[in-house]
Each structure stands twice: as structure tokens, then as C-alpha cells.
Amino acid sequence: IHPSNLPTFSSGIILRSTLEDQSTVHHVALVQPLLMKAKKIVQDMDPEDELTYVRLRTEKNEEIIAADKDYFMISIQTPSL
């Protein structure tokens, strides 16, 4: 199974997607605020540190989020047991 990829600017503007439009907007709308909060938590714990990677795993999907200052990449895949 090929993962779905969503490269996105930090502002939420989607560069490209391998998902349907509605799913793309849904994932980015949920991930962007989570990522911004996680970045803030890391900065509050250590101002010299920076969040670069988040991994979320549920029963249905695994989302791997690589973060940078100007963009983030969401990769969604179905985990195998």
C-alpha cells in the first residue's frame, strides 16, 4: 500500500496531495493546529530545541509528520500488524 503524501506550507496552503480534495483539507485542518501546539510545547520545554517529527498511530492509519519552519509533510499509511 502506497502512503498518501501532503506537502503543506506552515500557513496551511497545500502544495500537492495524493488524496481526494476533501480528505486532504480534513487532514491538514486537523494536523496543522496540533503541530503548532506541539512545536510550542517543545519550545516551552527547551527554547533551544525544535520539533522536527511527529508520529501518530491509530488502528486504521499511521500519520508521520515531518516539520520545518516553512512547511510540513504529512505521510499517511495503513499500518501492518
From TrEMBL:
Q: Which residues form a coiled coil?
A: none
Could you tell me the superkingdom of the organism this chain comes from? Eukaryota
Indicate the segments forming the Roadblock/LAMTOR2 domain, all copies.
Answer: 12-77
Q: Which InterPro entries match?
A: Roadblock/LAMTOR2_dom (IPR004942)
Q: Which SUPFAM superfamilies match?
A: Roadblock/LC7 domain
Q: Which Pfam families match?
A: Robl_LC7 (PF03259)
**Protein family (similarity comment):** Belongs to the GAMAD family.
Can you name this protein? Answer: Roadblock/LAMTOR2 domain-containing protein
Q: Give the organism, scientific name.
A: Fundulus heteroclitus (Killifish)
